[in-house]
């Protein structure tokens, strides 16, 4: 059998940040590289017909699998003999079929059929008085855009010319982030509230039981629904008009539909409606034409757009805005937050503020048009939402839908979706993570920069997106949109103090010890000091104890955002003050050995079990061991059953066994630990020898075996100062 050789290409194309992608269908030897890490500018670099310099291939890139292994034969699968079975080891075949099997992703639930193109947006009139959006600050400002036109009801493979609304979704890659204006070619909508959207879409899509009609509203369920939803009648007028059978995507208007907000640098806001006006003017077909086009060229609109752009006949639209204030809104006989209403231009003329030009076809339909993810929630500083309940619902839906369509929360890393301005945050990991953020700053606040590390990005109160608070009667007082916390939330210490002061003395000691242990592991001195300075607001004594435990100087008290108050200690907050004297659910180990008194062991076991406790017999050997009165098998071997596994220990041993066990480190440790952990130790006379070696002093909780039941499994905290420094 021929052996496969996997020679690495000595002159493999350069990769940046380890990211290298062979763009399918991008032409001879096309390779695409993405530059970008943790928010740097994402760029795409195309290398067409790049020679690999090996002398092979005549300028054509070598065919490889997805891991770079060159493929010798792309025609035949690997088989055992000329007519033999195909071999499972054929990784070339397996990968090819595997990838092919998974080429499709879920189509959009609405707007599945779409055509996209790249272009540019240019501000033609600066409107800084209206909005602080950077793109509108200066005439001549430009940004790249991607536009996707779509029908609504049909599937991804449906025809271009049904009677339907056309989606007009624009993604503007501005220098302050992506702004997605996800509109339609009709200025109003069927419904007023997002709550009805699934019903609307269900009704217009193929009927659920029969799977037809495709891409058509002319059927029972749609008309049943709209006949019951009078709010849809305005939109029905538009949908039955020639607007719904356009001649070309280049000849449709676009509308943001909802009322949005402009917010200027002073924080003043006005309402705004967005309009796209085609420079070619509007044109429609007749219904008969539309039907015939569907047969003659199902891709009529997609082809028309593609060919026009390829021929340099770049379609263009002006961006117009209708800007108005609350007073204007209040005077209208309709609600401007109702998406089934428009504002007649005779009442409020458009101001033209920009121009959109589509000048580049997509290079790959799937990578761009299919994977583009529009989010109405993508707004930039200077543009904000209104309370339109339809818009509010969309703000959730589009983000959510991308997870289902693109499969990962990292869909923003797909080149068509990534912003073209830098982006930095503390989001990490997730399916299909392609960025490789460095450093350990994946949370904020952090003080890592002070320690010379990369502390990551920080919020920018001056230039960051700030939601408009609201200034109408619905958004005053408690209804204002704010990112604040109520004043009493600023008390961070009173209840920390309450908790600490409600503990018993040794519980407090445990807290102090825990803090000493944890902070001793912290290598950043400033962090340790900061914690100490905060502890002083909780309890000075605690802070001093911890500082002493660390051998550190007590720093000045941190300034409290709100001075703590003394609350009355609460006994309920202590474990020890609420401990139950019970054997229920507790586990007691009885240590025995050969020769031990079986009756005594069984007697103790019965008493413990009768009280709801569990018993484990532990012995140096598992047995069955010969004991006085028969044989006994241990549940656990001594070295493998350390006393930490039990709530209390007891031992019933013959003196000569005890003598031997006193020399056994595991046995001595068994008692030493039980003692150090303040557990009950019930012992027979013989065991005393071992106890002495383990440093177990007679006293609270160290009782003769007969006294076990009166002590039970309580912890004997009074013993603690003898086994641990609690200062
Ligand atoms: Fe959409 N809409 N929509 N819609 N819509 C989607 O998002 C939704 C609405 C529009 O080319 C989906 O990414 C809800 C109005 C366009 O990729 C989904 C509501 C307007 C596109 C979704 C609406 C639109 C979509 C499906 C009512 C005009 C295609 C895939 C609250 C202003 C974008 C996706 C593209 C796509 C939800 C109403 C326009 C499911 C819940 C009104 C142009 O998220």
Automatic annotation (TrEMBL):
InterPro entries found in the cross-reference section: Catalase (IPR018028), Catalase_AS (IPR024708), Catalase_clade2 (IPR024712), Catalase_clade2_helical (IPR043156), Catalase_core (IPR011614), Catalase_haem_BS (IPR002226), Catalase_immune_responsive (IPR010582), Catalase_large_C (IPR041399)
GO MF terms, alphabetically ordered: catalase activity
Location of the region described as Disordered in the Swiss-Prot/TrEMBL record: 1-64
Pfam family, one: Catalase_C
CDD domains in the record: GATase1_catalase (cd03132)
Superkingdom of origin: Bacteria
Chain intervals with Basic and acidic residues compositional bias: 30-54
Similarity field: Belongs to the catalase family. HPII subfamily.
Designated name of the protein: Catalase
Species of provenance: Roseateles agri
Lineage: Bacteria, Pseudomonadati, Pseudomonadota, Betaproteobacteria, Burkholderiales
């Amino acid at each position: 059998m021929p052996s496969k050789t996997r020679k690495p290409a000595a002159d493999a194309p350069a990769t940046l940040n380890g990211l290298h992608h062979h763009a399918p269908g991008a032409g001879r030897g096309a390779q695409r590289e993405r530059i970008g890490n943790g928010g740097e500018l994402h760029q795409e670099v195309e290398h067409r017909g790049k020679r690999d310099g090996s002398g092979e291939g005549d300028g054509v890139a070598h065919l490889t699998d997805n891991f770079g292994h060159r493929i010798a034969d792309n025609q035949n699968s690997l088989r055992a003999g000329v007519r033999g079975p195909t071999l499972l080891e054929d990784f070339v075949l397996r990968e090819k079929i595997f990838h092919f099997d998974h080429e499709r992703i879920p189509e959009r639930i609405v707007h599945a059929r779409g055509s996209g193109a790249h272009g540019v947006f240019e501000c033609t009139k600066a409107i800084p008085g209206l909005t602080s959006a950077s793109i509108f600050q200066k005439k001549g400002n430009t940004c790249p855009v991607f536009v996707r036109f779509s029908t609504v009801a049909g599937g991804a493979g449906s025809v271009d010319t049904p009677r339907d609304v056309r989606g007009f979704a624009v993604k503007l890659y501005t220098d302050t982030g992506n702004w997605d204006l996800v509109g339609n070619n009709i200025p109003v909508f069927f419904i007023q509230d997002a709550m009805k959207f699934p019903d609307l879409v269900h009704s217009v899509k193929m009927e659920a039981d029969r799977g037809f009609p495709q891409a058509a509203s002319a059927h029972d369920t749609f008309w049943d629904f709209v006949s019951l939803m009078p709010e849809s009648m305005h939109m029905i007028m538009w949908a039955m008009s020639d607007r719904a059978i356009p001649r070309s995507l280049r000849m449709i208007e676009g509308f943001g539909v909802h009322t949005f907000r402009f917010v200027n640098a002073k924080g003043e806001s006005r309402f705004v409606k967005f309009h796209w006006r085609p420079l070619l003017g509007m044109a429609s077909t007749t219904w008969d034409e539309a039907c015939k086009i569907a047969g003659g060229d199902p891709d009529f609109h997609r082809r028309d757009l593609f060919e026009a752009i390829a021929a340099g006949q770049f379609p263009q639209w002006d961006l117009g805005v209708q800007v108005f204030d609350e007073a204007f809104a209040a005077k209208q006989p309709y609600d401007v937050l109702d998406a089934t209403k428009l504002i007649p231009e005779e009442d409020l003329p458009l101001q033209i503020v920009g121009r959109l030009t589509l000048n580049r076809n997509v290079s790959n339909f799937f990578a761009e048009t299919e994977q583009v993810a529009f989010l109405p929630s993508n707004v930039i500083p200077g543009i904000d939402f209104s309370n339109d309940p339809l818009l509010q619902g969309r703000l959730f839906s589009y983000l959510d839908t991308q997870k289902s369509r693109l499969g990962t929360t990292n869909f923003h890393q797909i080149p068509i979706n990534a912003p073209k301005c830098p982006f930095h945050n503390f989001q990490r990991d997730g399916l299909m993570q392609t960025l490789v953020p460095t450093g350990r700053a994946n949370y904020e606040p952090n003080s890592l920069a002070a320690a010379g590390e990369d502390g990551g990005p920080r919020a920018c109160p001056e230039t960051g997106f700030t939601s408009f608070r609201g200034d109408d009667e619905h958004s005053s007082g408690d209804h204002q949109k704010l990112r604040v916390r109520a004043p009493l939330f600023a008390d961070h210490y009173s209840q920390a103090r309450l908790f600490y002061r409600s503990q018993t003395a040794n519980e407090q000691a445990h807290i102090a010890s825990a803090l000493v242990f944890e902070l001793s592991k912290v290598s950043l001195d400033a962090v340790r000091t900061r914690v100490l300075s905060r502890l002083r607001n909780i309890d000075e004594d605690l802070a001093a104890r911890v500082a002493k435990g660390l051998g550190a100087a007590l720093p000045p008290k941190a300034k409290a955002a709100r001075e703590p108050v003394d609350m009355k200690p609460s006994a309920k907050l202590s474990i020890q003050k609420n401990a139950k004297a019970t054997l229920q659910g507790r586990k007691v180990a009885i240590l025995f050995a050969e020769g031990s008194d079986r009756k005594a062991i069984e007697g103790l076991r019965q008493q413990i079990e009768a009280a709801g406790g569990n018993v484990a017999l532990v012995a140096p050997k598992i047995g069955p061991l010969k004991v006085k009165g028969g044989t006994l098998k241990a549940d656990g071997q001594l070295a493998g059953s350390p006393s930490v596994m039990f709530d209390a220990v007891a031992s019933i041993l013959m003196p000569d066994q005890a003598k031997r066990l006193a020399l056994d480190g595991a046995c001595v440790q068994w008692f030493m630990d039980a003692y150090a952990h303040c557990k009950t130790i019930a012992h027979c006379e013989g065991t005393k020898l071992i106890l002495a070696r383990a440093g177990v002093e007679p006293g609270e909780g160290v009782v003769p075996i007969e006294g076990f039941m009166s002590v039970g499994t309580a912890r004997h905290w009074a013993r603690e100062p003898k086994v641990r420094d609690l200062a």
